[in-house]
Amino acid sequence: MRVHLAEGDVAAAVGTYRQLRTMLRGELGLEPTDRLTRPVAHLGEGRRVAS
Which of 35, 41, 48 is nearest to 14 (CA)? Predict the structure, then answer.
């Protein structure tokens, strides 16, 4: 995600976050940590946004 953001590719960063979040929830029943959410939180992604 950070590489995508550094390159200005916001869509790819958000897409990667969503894939990781889906895998964490589906396979482990967990929510992403703040460390994973922080890079995309300012883009409207993260724990408080429903999917």
Answer: 41
